Amino acid sequence: MTAREWAGRVHPAGPWEPDPGPMPVPGGAGFGDMIDALRELQDTITGAAPPPHLVEQATRALREVSAALKPHTVPEREQITGHRMDLRGRGQTMAPAFVPDEWDDSRVSGRVTFGRHYLGGNGAVHGGAVPLLFDEVLGRLANSGRRVSRTAYLHVNFRRITPVGVELRLDAKFEREEGRKRFLTAALYDGGHVTADAEGLFVALRPGQP
Ligand SMILES: CCCCCCCCCC(=O)SCCNC(=O)CCNC(=O)[C@H](O)C(C)(C)COP(=O)(O)OP(=O)(O)OC[C@H]1O[C@@H](n2cnc3c(N)ncnc32)[C@H](O)[C@@H]1OP(=O)(O)O
User: Which terminus of the chain, N or C, has fewer Cβ atoms within 10 Å?
Assistant: First the structure.
């Protein structure tokens, strides 16, 4: 079974349920730990000012890990990152890990913390990372229990700085559907303040559309 087929069987009705059941899990139980270690590494490297000898040592160690993993490169369908719906952030590090707390087919509410890796400047999250998070969460909600869709547009308003290293809340809502068009909204909160909000259009793909 490919990782993509596994993801479909574990979550036939929607992408937020965390129970993989008794099926064999691609990458094993420790895959999430490896991804968490990678997140930690990204944050640590971003925030570090190490001496040159340590930079060389770290570079060697990183190249060794890459060389060990490279022979296990697989086609996209068998790729584990992005397909492990039981893991925080689908087992990928591109976007910060969204942790859903409550959900149904029309809304989801959860928590997210942007690590140092996502710093833009002066303690604020990079302006490209916030839409990345919205696209991830709205995309998953748009496809929750429905035919696959893709983002046609994503409008993001930056209301205040989004702070790095602070646990934030994200609420997302499926507003309405018109034919193949799905309209969704979301807002990101730091305590009682909205730091950014978004509106997205997701268009359901026709058969054969990539
Ligand atoms: C389980 C895994 C979870 C994954 C979570 C992560 C999800 C991440 C989601 C993504 O990021 S997807 C990647 C980013 N998006 C893309 O790469 C999409 C690229 N664009 C396309 O593939 C096509 O443009 C698209 C599928 C969106 C639409 O093309 P189509 O040829 O299928 O549709 P068409 O152009 O006929 O438009 C259909 C309707 O949508 C409307 N529409 C399309 N694009 C629009 C737009 N940009 N603005 C306003 N309306 C738009 C269009 O006017 C029309 O409205 P009407 O039906 O009322 O006539």
Answer: C
